[in-house]
Design brief:
CATH topology of chain B: Helix Hairpins
Number of domains of chain A: 2
Helix content of chain A: over 70%
Number of strands of chain B: 0
Radius of gyration of chain A: 20 Å
Radius of gyration of chain B: 19 Å
CATH class of chain B: Mainly Alpha
Strand content of chain A: under 5%
Oligomer: heterodimer
Largest sheet of chain B: none
Largest interface: A-B, 72 and 56 residues
Shape of chain B: elongated
Number of helices of chain A: 7
Shape of chain A: flat
Number of helices of chain B: 3
Number of strands of chain A: 0
Distance between the termini of chain B: 61 Å
């Protein structure tokens, strides 16, 4: 299994770089979003190769939330962004499948990555060989409490602000379309 | 054997691509995506060196960076759509009425 890790790393590196170049050269917003999703999925699998299970979990949640947000906002948005959303809606399913597939591959190989269970990364967490999520969460609520609290308080503010910008103040209060920005 | 150097090289390439995108592209969504590329490079580096040094702080800090990236993405997306709406409204006003 250890021989497969370098092969997997190089495959994922190719996907990451290709996705990055795709972001750089694509003209269509939907293609930019697809390329970025490919990069995020590949990075998720790469961090799993480094036994960063908690981080990969966060990446998967963020990726799924980003896709959901794009689709949810797009359905209620005016016609000006409909081309982006129409390109993105079928893409969302493919992106979710890609995320799931790559994350599953990463999980399978990540569990057997060198260093896992032999004194590094995971075994330092109370000797538990199965994952480091509890330890990372524990650190978040102790050493990283202040920065994490600031970020967590900023997320709902950003979502409310973005919703207000997308729907417009009048439309948001009445729930009807046709408001000016 | 894949070491931290490999991950460092990959994250360097990703960071360069992100910086190039931020400087070269004019599309708001493309600039936003390029910023996300640069953040992904940072996350990759933190995970790789956290693994190498057997220290979970890198991973924990990367989770915080990830959450900050979400804020950036949400605000950027809202700004982009708001800008499109504003542009359409000004075009409608210039044309003398809403488009069909």
């Amino acid at each position: 299994m250890e021989q497969a890790v370098p092969i997997l790393f190089y495959c994922l590196a190719v996907v990451t770089i290709a996705g990055g170049v795709g972001v750089l050269v694509s003209r269509e917003p939907a293609r930019v979003a697809a390329s970025l999703s490919a990069v995020l999925a590949a990075v998720t699998a790469l961090v799993l190769l480094r036994s960063a299970v908690a981080l990969a979990l966060g990446q998967i949640i963020v990726g799924a939330a980003a896709v959901g947000l794009c689709v949810a906002v797009g359905r209620r948005s005016p016609t000006g962004v409909s081309s982006f959303i129409h390109g993105f809606a079928p893409l969302a399913v493919v992106v979710c499948l890609a995320f799931g597939g790559i994350a599953a591959i990463g999980l399978i190989f990540g569990v057997h990555a060198p260093g896992h269970g032999d004194g590094t990364a995971l075994t330092m967490v109370n000797g538990e060989p199965t994952g480091n999520v509890p330890a990372v969460v524990g650190q978040i609520f102790t050493a990283f409490l202040l920065p994490f609290a600031v970020v967590v308080l900023t997320v709902p503010a950003a979502i409310i602000g973005a919703r207000r910008m997308v729907l417009g103040p009048a439309e948001e209060s009445t729930g009807e379309g046709g408001a000016e920005a | 054997m894949i070491g931290a150097t490999h991950f460092l090289a990959l994250s360097l390439i990703l960071l360069c691509l992100g910086l190039m995108g931020m400087m070269m592209r004019r599309s708001f969504i493309a600039v936003l995506a390029s910023m996300q590329l640069a953040l992904s490079a940072a996350v990759l580096n933190l995970a790789a060196y956290g693994f190498r040094l057997s220290d979970l702080q890198g991973q924990t800090f990367a989770v915080v960076v990830l959450a900050a990236g979400v804020v950036q993405l949400v605000l950027g997306f809202g700004l982009a759509i708001g800008f499109v709406r504003l542009k359409e409204a000004s075009e409608d006003a210039a044309a003398g009425g809403p488009r069909s």
